[in-house]
């Protein structure tokens, strides 16, 4: 088995969201659905000293995130039907619509906000790593669309050589699910599990 | 502002299920204990059997409600593929086993000459299945990544809810069955159990409330998802307390002369009006207690939050 993984380069990403919209377009997703989302993390404060001078530590950084096709996915663990499954060959996690009951437990358990129930379709939907494109020797559409080349996709060992395993905020500690996302952090990135930075575009990503 | 209201409203049928089913199962088990204990007259046995329909219907309504939140119920049979792995599959499996055992018991009780020994064993099995089922509901969301639910307070709260609502609902069933036991020591014990569980659960919820501000991800804290948690706990206490007080009052107002011996049936038709009045009052009491539990189950879904990016 060759486990596939994403790589995110935080030093390159500008937060333009081309990845997100390329995916939406390619997958023809309706309003309210996005398989890749860009989280905008902000922290810091502006202070005024006794001399009346202002200083600020405010900063912001984007994180482009889709399903991380984890080694130990929370979604497949809780899925009652086995519809949410991990492909034995590629390690990509996807939904078998013929089995999914649409209970939404995968959505509730995933710490990366990846699966979501589409009530019209009656089953969960999520990023499948563009499995068909990958099988055809191409990369996921989000990766190819990124104008800054901040995203990459490939064999997990190759991606691991480019960064640390999903260890920046707002991501949780990678030990929960062992995500196949490897990150080169920007200088301002907070460590995984830190709640000091807040996601300031919740209406966009939830 | 980030809010948990969408989750709670989206899962409103699960709020209903987790309110009704555990209390219904405990009520069924309490009424069933009279069957298992034995010593009932044929008439008392028959009437308790008949009015087991009340907790059974309450449980069934909960289960049917839970099924309505599914996106594609046609695939429901696949749920059994996850038994042993998925807590939700375990819950559904336990629900089916309990309802099968309890339902078949109830249907068998309509046989012309039901075999008492078989009924007692069957009921004992149903009670054990019911206990396992309630426990499976308590642990249905036991996922490490859901930080606000992965605490001891969740299963504890659900079981104490069941022990608060179950006895009151059982009193309704026993009243409807005209069982004199609802008047005596058993009735007082049921009220005491309900009061103690309500008090204990308020403490559990209070301790959980103290923990909520410390459960935090990059969106919010669990406390901010349930900004009115203190008020909801108070509402739980008021509604639960009012319901239990109402059912306790039926004990006081019950006609002592009708309590001939444990498990016997009240005289008919002389006390029919009194019995009906007390039964209706017990129904209101059950509705109040279940409303209180509903408030806390709503709060449970409000506070859904993962360790990472889920609310």
UniProtKB/TrEMBL annotation, chain A:
Keywords: 4Fe-4S, Electron transport, Iron, Iron-sulfur, Metal-binding, Repeat, Transport. InterPro entries: 4Fe4S_Fe-S-bd (IPR017896), 4Fe4S_Fe_S_CS (IPR017900), ET_IronSulfur_Cluster-Binding (IPR050954). It holds the Pfam family Fer4_11. The keyword Iron-sulfur applies. The keyword Iron-sulfur applies. One of its GO terms (molecular function) is metal ion binding. CDD domains: DMSOR_beta_like. Residues 4-34, 91-120 form the 4Fe-4S ferredoxin-type domain. This is Dimethyl sulfoxide reductase subunit B. It comes from Enteroscipio rubneri.
From TrEMBL, chain B:
The lineage of its organism: Bacteria, Bacillati, Actinomycetota, Coriobacteriia, Eggerthellales. It comes from the Bacteria. One of its GO terms (cellular component) is dimethyl sulfoxide reductase complex. This is DMSO reductase. Signal peptide: none annotated. Coiled coil: none annotated. GO terms for molecular function: dimethyl sulfoxide reductase activity. InterPro entries: DmsC (IPR007059). The chain crosses the membrane at residues 12-36, 48-68, 88-108, 120-141, 153-177, 189-210, 230-251, 282-303. GO terms for biological process: anaerobic electron transport chain. Keywords: Membrane, Transmembrane, Transmembrane helix.
């Amino acid at each position: 088995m060759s486990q596939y993984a994403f790589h995110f380069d935080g030093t390159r990403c500008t937060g333009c969201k081309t990845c997100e919209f390329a995916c939406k377009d390619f997958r023809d997703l309706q309003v309210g659905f996005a398989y890749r989302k860009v989280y905008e993390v902000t922290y810091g404060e502006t202070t005024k000293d006794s001399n009346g001078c202002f200083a600020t530590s405010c900063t912001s950084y984007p994180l482009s995130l889709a399903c991380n096709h984890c080694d130990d996915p929370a979604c497949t663990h809780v899925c009652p039907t086995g519809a949410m499954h991990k492909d034995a060959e590629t390690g990509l996690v996807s939904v078998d619509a013929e089995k999914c009951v649409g209970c939404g437990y995968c959505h509730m358990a995933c710490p990366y906000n990846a699966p979501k129930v589409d009530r019209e379709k009656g089953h969960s939907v999520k990023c499948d790593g563009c499995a068909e494109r990958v099988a055809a020797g191409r990369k996921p559409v989000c990766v190819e669309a990124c104008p800054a080349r901040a995203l990459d996709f490939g064999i997990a060992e190759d991606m691991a050589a480019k960064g640390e395993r999903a260890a920046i905020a707002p991501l949780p500690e990678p030990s929960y699910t062992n995500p196949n996302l490897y990150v080169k952090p920007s200088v301002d990135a907070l460590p995984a599990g830190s709640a000091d930075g807040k996601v300031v575009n919740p209406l966009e990503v939830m | 502002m980030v809010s948990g209201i969408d989750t709670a409203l989206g899962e409103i049928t699960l709020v209903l299920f987790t309110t009704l089913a555990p209390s219904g199962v405990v009520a069924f088990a309490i009424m069933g204990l009279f069957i298992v204990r034995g010593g009932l007259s044929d008439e008392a046995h028959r009437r308790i059997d008949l009015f087991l329909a009340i907790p059974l219907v309450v449980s069934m309504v909960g289960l049917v409600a839970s099924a309505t939140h599914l996106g594609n119920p046609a695939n429901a049979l696949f749920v059994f593929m996850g038994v042993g792995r998925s807590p939700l599959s375990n819950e559904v499996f336990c629900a089916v086993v309990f309802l099968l055992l309890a339902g078949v018991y109830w249907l068998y009780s309509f046989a012309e000459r039901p075999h008492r020994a078989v009924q007692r064993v069957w009921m004992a099995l149903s009670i054990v299945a019911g206990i396992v089922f309630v426990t499976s509901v308590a642990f249905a969301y036991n996922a490490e990544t859901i930080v606000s639910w992965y605490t001891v307070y969740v299963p504890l709260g659900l079981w104490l809810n069941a022990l608060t609502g179950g006895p009151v609902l059982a009193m309704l069933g026993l009243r409807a069955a005209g069982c004199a036991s609802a008047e005596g020591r058993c009735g007082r014990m049921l009220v005491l159990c309900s009061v103690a569980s309500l008090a204990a659960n308020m403490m559990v919820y209070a301790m959980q409330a103290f923990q909520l501000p410390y459960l935090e991800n990059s969106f919010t804290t669990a406390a901010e998802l349930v900004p009115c948690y203190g008020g909801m706990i108070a509402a739980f206490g008021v509604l639960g307390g009012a319901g239990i007080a109402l059912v306790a009052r039926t004990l006081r107002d019950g006609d002592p002369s009708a309590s001939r011996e444990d498990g016997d049936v009240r005289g008919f038709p002389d006390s029919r009006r009194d019995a009906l009045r007390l039964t209706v009052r017990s129904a209101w009491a059950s509705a109040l207690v279940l409303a209180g539990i509903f408030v806390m189950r709503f709060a449970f879904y409000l506070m859904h939050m993962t360790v990472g990016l889920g609310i």
